[in-house]
């Protein structure tokens, strides 16, 4: 009997919870010398819902091709995703960043640098749309953990693009602040103080929680 495999070739086809599951496997086994075969098995199980017993029926070359497609998918760099649907609910990215409350900022800063908490960060960045006219929309107020479970199903193109967006925003804010202070208060700033300002903005520690995969042999 032929086994059909659905292989994700775009980040929008991968829900966040599967990415978190795969990253957890890599983290748990990072000191055990993971082999390419082990990583391929986990890719098939997690991203294609393919049990190892079924994978064993495929030719090695076919498995290599499938896992290479998944690797390429995980390395995609999507543009910012403004809206997406989970079930019948459409979620929208925060329309006006200046309207973000201090509480929202604190939660985002706490969650966005940790893979296992990315769904909580997404609940800050994306909310259910309550009114929409063409490309413009209004979103519901932030209500803490109301949508944490739902956001486990956030498509990965939205996750990655929003994180990159805020990473760049943090860099831009830091650069603008440093430039301003150097012009207006240069005589009052020490080199140490200027250097410290490089950390202003969303704390992503300069490291997005992206997987780094070994080269799989084709």
Describe the structure.
By secondary structure, the chain is an alpha+beta fold. The chain folds into two domains: 11-74, no CATH class; 83-199, no CATH class. Helix content is 44%, strand content 10%. The protein has eight helices and four strands; from the N terminus they run ααααββααββαα. It has helices at 16-28, 36-47, 52-55, 60-74, 102-111, 118-125, 156-184, 191-196, and strands at 83-86, 89-93, 126-133, 136-139. A four-stranded antiparallel beta sheet has the order 1-2-3-4. Helix 1 (16-28) packs antiparallel against helix 2 (36-47), helix 2 (36-47) crosses helix 4 (60-74) and helix 5 (102-111) packs antiparallel against helix 6 (118-125). The chain is elongated, with a radius of gyration of 21 Å.
Short characterization:
The chain is α+β, with helices and mostly antiparallel strands and 218 residues long. The protein has 2 domains: 11-74, no CATH class; 83-199, no CATH class.
Question: How many strands?
Answer: 4
Number of domains: 2
The mean pLDDT is 80
Oligomer: single chain
Work out the strand percent.
5-15%
Number of helices: 8
Strand order of the largest sheet: 1-2-3-4
Helix-strand string: HHHHEEHHEEHH
Helical coverage, percent range: 40-55%
Rg for CA atoms? 21 Å
Shape: elongated
What structural class should be given to the helix and strand makeup?
A: alpha+beta
**What is the straight-line distance between the termini?**
25 Å
Largest sheet: 4 strands, antiparallel
Ranges where pLDDT stays below 50 over 5 or more residues in a row are 189-218
